[in-house]
Write a structure and sequence with these properties.
Length: 194
């Protein structure tokens, strides 16, 4: 494992995320929205996540900026990051398949929206966020830089911290007691923990 291979793994992983998401994105555009909370705040949260998991690490991978924040590369940590990236891609793919037409990249519910509680959703309420958390963790291990490495986790934390409560309130308003019962028995993003 070298720094170049670690950066390549991160870039290929990000491209794979786009490839996985694209057909689901296109299909979701065809399903009418029944409830939309895509506000300016929501767009800013998505932007912070994109900056942390996209712009900052890609800038570092292609230019080395900001070099002053570099620390010595550790091949063993980068290997751990590669494994976590692969696991996040598998999780991301499976989440999209399980959600089907219920998927949206924003705080929106589709006209045909149903509550998904099977498969991965048996273990956590938000496995998509679990996948993003894993991507941020992989980035931390793959990029030996005090800014670019943790930027993904910071971007994700901002998105998650300011969004998940609103998302869950929207689900409660739509699915009522069914969602409240689901919340009681199912952790948010880490099975058996949180």
């Amino acid at each position: 494992m070298t720094p170049l291979i670690a950066k390549t793994i991160l870039i290929v992983g990000a491209i794979a995320w786009f490839v996985i998401r694209w057909p689901h994105q296109r299909r979701s555009w065809k399903t009418p929205v029944s409830k939309n909370q895509r506000t300016t705040r929501e767009k800013l949260l998505l932007l912070s996540n994109f900056m942390g998991l996209g712009v900052i690490p890609f800038t570092y991978a292609f230019t080395g900026f900001p070099r002053f924040a570099d620390y010595p590369f550790n091949p063993a940590l980068a290997l751990v990051g590669a494994v976590i990236m692969a696991a996040s891609l598998l999780l991301f793919h499976r989440v999209h398949r399980e959600l089907g037409r219920n998927w949206s990249d924003s705080l929106q519910l589709r006209e045909t929206h149903t509550l998904v509680t099977h498969g991965l959703y048996t273990y956590v309420r938000h496995p998509m966020y679990s996948a993003f958390f894993m991507w941020g963790l992989a980035q931390l291990f793959l990029l030996p830089n005090w800014i670019a490495g943790p930027a993904g986790l910071v971007g994700f934390a901002i998105l998650f911290g300011f969004r998940v409560g609103r998302e869950e309130r929207m689900m409660e308003e739509t699915f009522g007691d069914q969602y409240r019962e689901y919340m009681k028995r199912t952790p948010r993003i880490i099975p058996w923990v949180y």
